[in-house]
Fold:
Amino acid sequence: MDLQFTAAERAFRDEVREFLRASLAPGVRSKLQQGASPDKEEIVAWQRALNARGWAVPHWPAEWGGTSWSPIEHHIFQDELQQWPAPATLPFNVDMVGPVIAQFGSEAQKRYFLPRAANLDDWWCQGFSEPGAGSDLASLRTSATRVGEHYRVKGHKTWTTLAQHADWIFCLVRTNPDVKKQEGISFLLIDMKSKGVTVRPVITLDGSHEINEVLLDEVEVPRQNLVGEEGRGWDYAKFLLSRERTGIARVGSSKELVRRVRQLAAQVRRGPRAVLDDVAFRERLALLEIELKALEITQLRVVAAEGRHGGRADPLSSLLKIRGSEIQQALSEMLLEVAGPQAARSMTPDPDAATQWLARVAPRYFNWRKISIYGGSNEIQRNIIAKSVLGL
Structure:
């Protein structure tokens, strides 16, 4: 593989960098560099700025806002945004429900939902996991019973990220309990303002409100909100999850965090020496950089092969999910090591801008334990690799 960018690709990278310099507020960039998360208004404003530039949904079909970028240009774009860093576009809109509707939805669904998803006029959330049906998603029990021109939905979704902001939720529901469990699942679009929808917060270990439970009590959903065919929801979910797993790798974000770890390790001292002066620490950081480069090359291979699997998920996306999540977790551990006992400042944030990062090290470390679980646990991904890649 030729790892050198062409002149045209380097020019495109410069164009992306100039857009970032001109369009993202410095305060938002600084906030992200310090390890804080963007708020809802910052995410919406940034996605709309990208949409105005024609870059919010580059991997969608051209008629719905996609670009003619090559796989390498797609990689460069995401890599630059993550390394800057800039807020991510809302993945539920851009990487999950949007591609599913574009691929499998009706023309009416495409015309209504896709422009609104691209511009974040609607905030979507994901209704897949349930109590007792997380990694074993096919065991879900939320039911959707056909009554005339509606479905009546009853069930309980959990770990629903940012549902407190959502206008719509895309849900996997069981429409036929009498067939093989994967074959009885359908994909429904549900208005969060519907009668019978209740959102309850789940406060995580780091004290944040990021995830929720969503209760569905006899919620009426128009039949026209069924995506594709009844009973094909499992196929659509696999299509969606392959894209989620590729994105979870977040190679650019890990590159930015490697730089951050090295910078802070050079500043923070343990007695007479900086943390970075420790040979063992430097060796571990260098090893993570090597593994990150290997992951980036693998990601380029997966992206370049997109479309060669007949619309099916590329099983190598499971490898990206495993290694990407492991590298992110390892970097969060190294950042915690750099902070040392000062990580306790997470309980009493320091107003000094130079040390604000200390307030977020421990919460990030604990929060990122979930990365190897969501999107399909790493154990499940290894089973997929064994079956679909190794043929075991």
Summary: Residues 158 and 225 are 21 Å apart (CA to CA). The first strand starts at residue 124 and ends at 127. The domain at 7-89 is CATH 1.10.540.10 (Butyryl-Coa Dehydrogenase, subunit A; domain 1).
